[in-house]
Amino acid sequence: MVKTNTNKLTDDQISEIKESFDMFKSDNGKLDNDQIKYAFKALGCEITEETLELIKKKGQKSISFNSFFELVSPYIPKRDSMSTLEQAFKLFVKDGSGITFKDLKKVAINIGEECSDSDLYDMIEFADTDGDGVINKSEFISLMTTKKVL
């Protein structure tokens, strides 16, 4: 159970935090520093290097959901939904041109997600509405803001 005052957060925001944590956590059920960065970015937030250093100084190599929740919850009410989606898009692609198979595979490997190449291609095909083999920013935003089911 989360120990913080969640009055400022909606149920959807709390669910988002949990989903982000679950997406990036290791087999031990915790996030290491790299996974913390990815989970923050997926939520449209940036964690400072100072905060990561504080975690290290406390001797923590990884953090639990409750610790992650405590870290990220102050950032959530301040987010702009469009900038959140843009941050999430940037998780996948550095140059802004679009998410390719290679980008998607790299993120899957970085977060420890085992996906077959076929599954990754299916994901791209599902979101790629213009058929160019790349998920551009508008396709990504459309995917993330509509309730489609694979």
Provide an overview of this structure.
This protein has 150 residues and is mostly helical. The chain has eight helices and two strands, in the order αβααβααααα. Strands 1-2 form a two-stranded antiparallel ribbon. Helix 1 runs antiparallel to helix 2. It is globular and about 50 Å long. The chain starts with 10 loop residues before the first helix and ends in a 5-residue tail after the last helix.
Top keywords for this entry?
150 residues, mainly alpha, Recoverin, domain 1, 2 domains, two-stranded antiparallel sheet, 8 helices, 2 strands, globular, disordered N terminus, Centrin_CML-like, cell division, cytoskeleton, Centrin-B, calcium
Write the layout of secondary structure elements.
Elements: H1 11-24, E1 31-32, H2 33-42, H3 49-57, E2 62-63, H4 65-72, H5 81-92, H6 101-110, H7 117-127, H8 137-145
Antiparallel strand pairs: 1-2
Helix pairs in contact: 1-2, 5-8
Short description:
The chain has helices at residues 11-24, 33-42, 49-57, 65-72, 81-92, 101-110, 117-127, 137-145, and strands spanning 31-32, 62-63.
